[in-house]
Each structure stands twice: as C-alpha cells, then as structure tokens.
Amino acid sequence: MSSSNKRGIRSSWCWRRWIDSDQTEIWSGRLQAMAGSAWTLTGLSQRTRLLAAVYVESRSAALALQRQLGGQVRPVKAADWISRGPSVPLRIGGKFEIVHESAPAIRRHSLPRLRIPHGVAFGSGEHTTTALLLRALARRTLEGCRVLDLGTGSGILALAARLLGASKIVGIDFDPDAVRTARQNERLNFRAPLIRWLCADIRRWRSGIRHHVVLANLFSSVLVEAAPRIAASVAPGGSLWLSGILRNQEREVTAAYRRRGLVLARSARRGKWVVLQWDKRIRKSPAV
Ligand SMILES: C[S@@+](CC[C@H](N)C(=O)[O-])C[C@H]1O[C@@H](n2cnc3c(N)ncnc32)[C@H](O)[C@@H]1O
C-alpha cells in the first residue's frame, strides 16, 4: 500500500537492520541484487555497525525482506520524507550551505543557501557519496558551464551546480518521484526554472549535447553498464565525477572508463566509498 502526501511524494515501507561494518561488501551485493537502487547503508565513521535499509512501496514487500534477512519493518510516513534534517546547516567548502526547508532562504552574513526538504535516503547532501561530490563541485568554478547530473535524486547536485553559476544543467533520474521532487526543490530555491529535469534510464538514454561537468552518484553496476553513454556525454576538456563506488568495485569501474579514453585525474576515499574524477582530453588535430 502506498499513498501520496501533499507534495506528491509517496509514503512507503522500510525494512532495516544493523550489520557489522566488516560485512559491508557482502551486504552491498545482497541488497543490490534484492532491491535494485532502493537501499542505503549508513553509519558514522567511528562506529563498527552500519544501518542497512531498503525502501519499498508495500508492507508485504518489506515483510518478504524481513523473512529472508531478519531485521525490522516499519512504515515510512510522508512526514519522514520531508521533515527530517540535520540539526545544523551543512557547510560545503565555504561556498554555500544546505539547510532544512523550514529555515529562512537568506540570513544576514550567511553563505548562499540551498533549502532542501530532507528525505530518508539520498537528498539532503549528508550521505558520504553525495558530500564528496558536493565538496568537489565547490572547489571549481562553474560559471557558464554545462553540467549533467545522472541519478539526480532530490536534485541536490544539480541545484548546487546552479548555485555555483552553471548556465545549463540537466538532471536525470528513472524514478518519477525523484524527478518531481527535484523540480519542486528547484522551485523552492530559485525564482525561475533553469534546470532541465528528465525521467529516463541512464542505461538506455543518449545525451544530445556534451557537458563540461558530468556527475554520477550511482551504483557501480550502473556506472559500468552505462560507461559508453556516460563517457560520451563529457565534452572534450571536460570532467566526469563518479561516486557511489565501494572500494572493492573501484578496479572494475576504473577499467570501464579507461577503455573509453578518459584519464583518471584524481580519486578520493572516505570510509568504504571512493570518488573518481576523470578528464576527457582535447584531441589535438594532426599538424599539416
Ligand atoms: C545514490 S542516489 C544519488 C542521488 C543524488 N544525486 C545524490 O548524490 O544524493 C542514486 C539515484 O540514481 C537513480 N538511479 C539509479 N539507477 C538509475 C538509472 N539506471 N537511470 C536513472 N536513474 C537511476 C536513483 O533513482 C537515485 O535517485
């Protein structure tokens, strides 16, 4: 059973259980096989346990997971999707901060703000895989850039790109709820729409134009399968940031993008997660 709240976000059910952090790889594979993209593993860096969660639309689906995996099942109320947020604003590289939607849009002497109705999984910018990309974005100038956000979720990365001056931005997700939420979040933060929000599966979609910056916070399996399309969407001289990669998946992802002629410029690790930054070199035309 699922229902919609005022903002059109569906309420759902959540299965969850605590796991030991040394079993992260086993659980990531298991959850990915059983739940596609709807799972999260979250934990504080100093803790030895992580909370595994899967979000589904029906109680019976949640109970089926419980029968197989143990753990607990609970309804996720619409209010959970929109009202939880960090108690303090999240500061990104001294450039901007992410605050709960109930906070005022501008405060005197404060950094520019993105107001986000925080969701249960990805959305608020707090997840390590998102935070690594937000910080990478804040380190560079985006004035006049074309930016592509693959697997946009709440739209947080696309919105950050807009705040940082990107001139053309496209955000894509195959979940219509995510696309709707992202569009609402743009409306919440900016007077006029600028970002193009698309509902599409990245594994089948083809980019018409090339982008100076491409961001993809996705599971490694999607990053590998869609590597030809993702690599083709980067403009010569542009860069591609890949996140959502577990350490044990780094080699496979790296091989897939090297084969596409991209050059690994930088990698960052936090906990079990890896972010890879790739550059697409400008081909010099042969001297005549
Ligand atoms: C890990 S979340 C990232 C959300 C946001 N970009 C962030 O960094 O917080 C991944 C998002 O990618 C979407 N996604 C997963 N596989 C996809 C695919 N094949 N095509 C399009 N979107 C996909 C999911 O619906 C989800 O919203």
What is the CATH level 1 assignment of the largest domain? Answer: Alpha Beta
Give the number of helices: 9
Roughly how many Å apart are the termini? 68 Å
Strand order of the largest sheet: 10-9-8-11-12-14-13
- Radius of gyration over alpha carbons? 19 Å
Instruction: Give the % helix.
Output: 25-40%
Fold and architecture overview:
This protein has 2 domains: 12-81, Alpha-Beta Plaits (2-Layer Sandwich), CATH 3.30.70; 122-279, Vaccinia Virus protein VP39 (Rossmann fold, 3-Layer(aba) Sandwich), CATH 3.40.50. It is 29% helix and 31% strand. The strands form 3 sheets. It has a 7-stranded mixed β-sheet, with helices on both faces. The protein has a 4-stranded antiparallel β-sheet with strand order 2-3-1-4. The chain has a 3-stranded mixed β-sheet with strand order 5-6-7. It is of the alpha/beta class. Strand 5 (90-92) and strand 6 form a beta hairpin. The protein has helices spanning 24-35, 59-69, 78-83, 128-138, 156-163, 176-189, 220-225, 227-232, 250-258, and strands at residues 12-20, 39-42, 49-56, 72-76, 90-92, 96-100, 113-116, 146-150, 168-173, 196-199, 211-217, 234-246, 263-270, 273-279. It is globular. Bound molecules: S-adenosylmethionine.
